[in-house]
Amino acid sequence: MIEVLVADDQAAVRAGLVLILRGAPDVRVVGEAADGARAVELARELRPDVVLMDVRMPRLDGISATREIAGIADVLVLTTFDMDEYVFGALRAGAAGFLLKDVDADRLVEAVRTVAAGEGVIAPRVTRRLIGAFASRPAAPAETPGLDGLTPREREVFACLGEGLSNQQIAARLDMAETTTKTHVSRILGKLGLASRVQAAILAQETAATGLSRHDPHKEAPGPR
């Protein structure tokens, strides 16, 4: 059962989100918050799997709340606004996903499941802008702090994260079990001090990691499985 905390300052919107989530047999809403500060309090108290977070809220905005909650629970930001400052702010704060409130009910529930499973979710409408933003930036030096602590296999997984691949896709590309992939992702996040795989993907893009280590079974022996 996926436990979810819903944070939104508009009571009607919050009620609608709760209604949608309660319609899913594998989702349980464990709490509601009308502002960011309360969301942080409830996240620490209830330890939900996923926090559905609005951006514009009183007392503490959703991005600041996400920064405090990341590491306690996976945060899926859901907002009316697709402004770049919100998108990048939320993802850099540690959000595992970013969706717009015009998302349909089925997509919302599926996004909650995806985030709870350790994957990332980005609204299709903002994905192209994210790609464009990264493409327009010069590549950062390969010696980014922390990267030298990654094993060769972890660098390969890190590069795949930068391409936006899921755990299943990474496992298939690198010829290893999906559970092993999840272990590598967790170790990468720990070594780099990141709160989510989306942050890892951003860092991988910024360091041009996808050009640093591609798996080629003809050039090297497989790493540990």
TrEMBL record:
<feature type="modified residue" description="4-aspartylphosphate">
    <location>
        <position position="54"/>
    </location>
</feature>
<feature type="domain" description="HTH luxR-type">
    <location>
        <begin position="143"/>
        <end position="208"/>
    </location>
</feature>
<dbReference type="InterPro" id="IPR058245">
    <property type="entry name" value="NreC/VraR/RcsB-like_REC"/>
</dbReference>
<feature type="domain" description="Response regulatory">
    <location>
        <begin position="3"/>
        <end position="116"/>
    </location>
</feature>
<dbReference type="InterPro" id="IPR039420">
    <property type="entry name" value="WalR-like"/>
</dbReference>
<keyword id="KW-0597">Phosphoprotein</keyword>
<dbReference type="InterPro" id="IPR001789">
    <property type="entry name" value="Sig_transdc_resp-reg_receiver"/>
</dbReference>
<protein>
    <submittedName>
        <fullName>Response regulator transcription factor</fullName>
    </submittedName>
</protein>
<dbReference type="InterPro" id="IPR011006">
    <property type="entry name" value="CheY-like_superfamily"/>
</dbReference>
<keyword id="KW-0805">Transcription regulation</keyword>
<dbReference type="Pfam" id="PF00072">
    <property type="entry name" value="Response_reg"/>
</dbReference>
<dbReference type="Pfam" id="PF00196">
    <property type="entry name" value="GerE"/>
</dbReference>
<dbReference type="InterPro" id="IPR016032">
    <property type="entry name" value="Sig_transdc_resp-reg_C-effctor"/>
</dbReference>
<dbReference type="InterPro" id="IPR000792">
    <property type="entry name" value="Tscrpt_reg_LuxR_C"/>
</dbReference>
<keyword id="KW-0804">Transcription</keyword>
<keyword id="KW-0238">DNA-binding</keyword>
